[in-house]
From TrEMBL:
InterPro entries: P-loop_NTPase, Thymidylate_kin-like_dom, Thymidylate_kinase. This is Thymidylate kinase. PANTHER family: THYMIDYLATE KINASE, UMP-CMP KINASE 2, MITOCHONDRIAL. Belongs to the thymidylate kinase family. Pfam families: Thymidylate_kin. Keywords: ATP-binding, Kinase, Nucleotide biosynthesis, Nucleotide-binding, Transferase. It is an enzyme of class 2 (transferase). It catalyses: dTMP + ATP = dTDP + ADP. Gene3D superfamilies: P-loop containing nucleotide triphosphate hydrolases. Residues 8-197 form the Thymidylate kinase-like domain.
Length: 222
């Protein structure tokens, strides 16, 4: 019997990693068996092609690598992670909490295409990962939505706090805006659970968002 796959997706800087960890803390407190996964898996050889893309080895702008090619780079890492790490746990009934998943290709790569070509791309993407590669479909996708202007402020703060450089996605404000516009429509069309992470021009508190996230997850926990 398969378990549950809960995916955190959203705009850059929206707090996906934070909320995924907080949910895992709740699962641990309740004595539930879970596994937390995060993509790309930096440090894994299977994630290196995606890492090279993100850090400009294949072009300095996101559009230098087309949506289909970029998606394959990430899909290889996900397939390897399922085989190496969490597949058996999930298949045995465990709860898997993912910070990003196939949904990230939907958010980021579909935005590179004209709107009229996005449905065909999404069909191809989900057939590739869920169909041909055999990866599980999420039981719940929590899309953390943050206005691009707020998102960029959060990204710059994170760079300063962690002394890290932004990748080619995070550096491109126009690209981030296109991603958000595309993702909001995709989230609506695919029935993702959208969590608004801003109140006006300021982010909501982490705890406030945590409570809303838990209310969306509760039906899956029995």
């Amino acid at each position: 019997m398969n378990g549950k796959l809960i995916v955190f997706e959203g705009t850059d800087g929206s707090g996906k990693a934070t909320q995924a960890k907080l949910l895992c803390e709740t699962l641990a407190d309740r004595g539930l068996s879970y596994r937390e996964i995060d993509f790309p898996r930096y440090g894994s050889p299977f994630a290196e092609p995606a890492n090279l893309y993100l850090h400009g080895a294949l072009g300095n702008k996101p559009g230098d690598v087309n949506a289909y090619a970029a998606s394959v780079l990430y899909a290889v890492d996900r397939f390897a992670s399922y085989q190496e790490d969490w597949g058996r746990f999930y298949e045995a009934g465990g709860i898997v909490v993912a910070n990003r998943y196939t949904t990230s290709n939907a958010v980021h790569q579909a935005s590179k295409l004209p709107e009229g070509e996005r449905r065909e791309f999404l069909d191809w993407l989900f057939d590739l990962e869920y169909g041909r590669m055999g990866l599980p479909r999420p039981d719940l996708v929590l899309y953390l939505d943050l206005p691009t202007e707020v998102s960029e402020k959060m990204l710059r703060y994170r760079e300063q706090a962690t002394a890290t450089a932004a990748d080619i996605h995070e550096q491109d404000g126009d690209y981030l805006r296109r991603c958000r516009e595309s993702a909001r429509k995709i989230a609506r069309d695919l029935g993702w659970s959208v969590v608004d992470c801003a109140a006006g021009d300021a982010p909501r508190s982490v705890e406030d968002i945590r409570r809303e996230v838990l209310s969306r997850v509760e039906p899956l926990l029995g």
